[in-house]
Amino acid sequence: MAIVGIGEKQSASPVLILIVDDSEPFRHFIRSMLERREDLRIVGVASDGLEAVQKSEELQPDLILLDIGLPGLSGIEAAKRICKLAPKSKIIFLSVE
Q1: C-alpha to C-alpha distance for 57 and 26, rounded to whole angstroms
Q2: How confident is the model over 20-69, as pLDDT tens digits?
Q3: Which of 21, 24, 53, 55 is most buried, most CB within 10 Å of its CB?
């Protein structure tokens, strides 16, 4: 545990995020909103369920913003696979609907 003195800032690692949504405009919107924060870092984006699984395993993000209705492999099925391949990643389901 680091001890921080008065007037010192504690430098925490940013939260690594993977954005998964089949809508490019929505991915762009989410990315632009999150990139404003210094404590968050977008490490990847994906547009379908299979790509989400692959990138989750490869990148091991802290947080995955996952659309439910994805082409190829649904967000629910992708999440089941991701939980096995990136067990430390947290998943938040999101949808434009």
Answers
A1: 23
A2: 999 999 999 999 999 999 999 999 999 999 999 999 999 999 999 999 99
A3: 21
Q: Please list, in sequence order, all residues whose beta carbon lies within 8 angstroms of the beta carbon of residue 41, skipping any fewer than 6 positions away.
A: 14, 15, 16, 17
35 domain residue, yes or no: yes
Specify if 55 maps to a domain: yes
SS3 (DSSP) at 19: strand
Q: Provide the number of structural domains found in the chain.
A: 1
φ/ψ of residue 86, rounded to 5? -140, 70
String of b and e for 65-94 (b: at least 16 CB within 10 Å)?
bbbeebeebbbeebbebbeeebeebebeeb
Q: Taking the model in full, what pTM does it have?
A: 0.86
Domain that holds residue 74: 15-94
Token reading at 64? 């995955």
